[in-house]
Amino acid sequence: MRLLKTFSVLPIVALTAACATSGANYQPVIDGAVGPNYSNDLAQCQALASQQGAFSSTTGEKALAGAAVAGGATAVFNNKGTNARDAALVGAAAGAIAGAVDQQQSKEAIVRNCMRQRGYNVVG
Question: I need a labelling partner for 24 at 20 to 30 A (CA). Which of 11, 17, 83, 104 fits?
């Protein structure tokens, strides 16, 4: 049973790893005509965004908070066997995913701002 629980966390880790570059590959919506340098400018802005890590600087804090809340609540309300430990692991995974999502949104913002600074009218 323990092995099954361990393998149930692997899809969460794989999903988080798959999202590591998705924010950097963001293509903003441009209002108006684009010039001949658009592809080059977009590639450079995406490269700038991809230099950021897969997780935000607050991912550890979010994972710890998720583990504390889930584990603590389970310990108080339903403490049977290893429930509190399992809930803490799920809470930590949820916190780590939240950090990855924050980082993805940050990468998209980097691409948008970079394109704006290059003179494009970015609307989304």
Answer: 11
pTM of the predicted model over 0.70 = no
- Single-letter residue type at 112: R
Q: What is the pLDDT along the chain (124 residues), one digit of tens a residue?
A: 454 454 455 555 555 555 555 677 999 999 988 889 999 999 999 999 988 876 666 667 777 777 777 777 776 677 676 777 777 777 878 777 877 887 888 889 999 999 999 999 999 8
SS3 at position 124: coil
**Orientation angle between helical segments 83-117 and 59-77, nearest 10 degrees:** 150
Structure tokens at 57: 């600087």
Q: Of 63, 56, 53, 58, which is closest to residue 96 (Cα–Cα)?
A: 63
Helix (H) or strand (E) holding 74: helix 59-77
